[in-house]
Amino acid sequence: MAVRGMLTTALRWDGQSLGLLDQTLLPGREAWITVHGAEDTAAAIRRLAVRGAPNIGIAGAYGLAMAVAADPARLEPDAALLRGARPTAVNLSWAVDRVATAARYGGPEAALAQAEALHASEHAASAAIGAHGADVLERTGARRILTHCNAGALACAGEAGSALACVLELARRGAAVEVLACETRPLLQGARLTVWELERLGLPHALLPDGAAAGLMRRGEIDAVVVGCDRVAANGDVANKVGTYAHALAARAAGIPFLVAGPVSSIDLALPDGDGIEIEERDADEVRRTPGGELLTLPGTPVRNPAFDVTPAALVSALVTEHGVAEPPDAAGVRALAAR
Ligand code: MRU
Questions:
Q1: How confident is the model at residue 4 (pLDDT cuts 50, 70, 90)?
Q2: Can you tell me the distance from the alpha carbon of 123 to that of 119, in angstroms, rounded to the nearest whole number?
Q3: Spacing, Cα 307 to ligand 1 middle (Å)
Q4: What are phi and psi of 239, to 5 degrees?
Q5: Ligand 1 mean position to 56 CA, how many Å?
Q6: How far apart are CA 316 and CA 274, in angstroms?
Q7: C-alpha closest to that of 147 among 208, 83, 218, 72
Q8: DSSP assignment of 310-332, as one string?
Q9: From the candidates 40, 230, 268, 309, which is the catalytic residue?
Q10: What is the pLDDT of residue 5?
């Protein structure tokens, strides 16, 4: 399949400050903001101007590097501020901890070198994830592939992130793929961001209401599901955008593969299983209102807004990383991927 492959970049480091493509404004406007330290970087992470597990890690890394360059005494408080900006994706605390360690032993220059190295390695991971994921999909003969939220270049650096990189590589190998992108209530990362990326890549696609996915799987209209991940526990349980677990259950009931794709920086060997993963609860107005602010229900309606859910490893057919694939993931397979 001919793929246009227009490069999408969500973060730009110019040596002094970090440019972020403000994802809250997509797809209507492509506007960049610039952050200069820990506080504005943490605020951008919290309001999802930058989002997706690997990219919040990269942003947090540069945020801390900028903070210690301005004032080395800010290291510990600013590291804590950045780590706390979002709790579920382990990539954020993982990246901030690495930069903090570099700063403690080598000062601001070492901190910046660590942030740049992290950025480069997450960028390189995308192509390797794409190749490993395409190998798995090719074997299953999948063409109609469902995804949830956004696990493309807007989330993970590289040309097409993690889940979308697998589909892009499959298309480049000649498969006539179609991506079924779930809207992803409440913040519509699928409708606003994944569709925007797929259009730029030139990959055939259709947008689905989240509630349509299970029925289409049951009717045999979807061949495989590929999603990203925010944290993978040592036993292979996976936290990802809320709604992912329902897709995994439906995929299992329909007998189709359910793939999880992400860099090894999303693996958290410190947690034995997914029950220990902190699930971020976000503001009630994200559910009561459209992303543009229009009221969808009564103004004071009580709301639950967990931003993520956990899919047990037993429902995951393959965990795809830049180090290879655990198929299916179990404790030994996850440890081997993390160690390489
Ligand atoms: O709240 P978001 O938009 O940051 O959630 C992002 C996701 O859930 C992605 O699927 C995840 O970060 C995977 S990116 C490999």
A1: low
A2: 6
A3: 9
A4: -95, 130
A5: 9
A6: 13
A7: 208
A8: EE-GGG-SEEEETTEEESS--HH
A9: 230
A10: 63
User: If DSSP states are collapsed to H, E and C, what string results for 132-170?
Assistant: HHHHHHHHHCCCEEEECCCCCHHHHCCCCCCHHHHHHHH
User: Do 181 and 207 contact (CB within 8 A), yes or no?
Assistant: yes
* Residue 245 confidence (pLDDT) above 80: yes
Which residue's CA is minimally distant from atom 14 of ligand 1? 151
Instruction: Tell me how far apart the alpha carbons of residues 339 and 323 are, in angstroms, rounded to a whole number.
Output: 9
Q: Tokens standing for 126?
A: 């995308």
Note the residue count of the chain.
340
Chain position carrying tokens 């390489």: 340
Determine the Cα–Cα distance for residues 293 and 280; give it in Å rounded to an integer.
21
| Residue tagged 């309001």 (tokens) | 47
Whole-number Å distance between alpha carbons of 55 and 119: 9
Protein residue closest via CA to atom 10 of ligand 1? 228
User: Residues with beta carbon inside 6 Å of ligand 1?
Assistant: 51-54, 89, 149, 151, 155-156, 161-162, 189, 228-230, 240-241, 262, 307
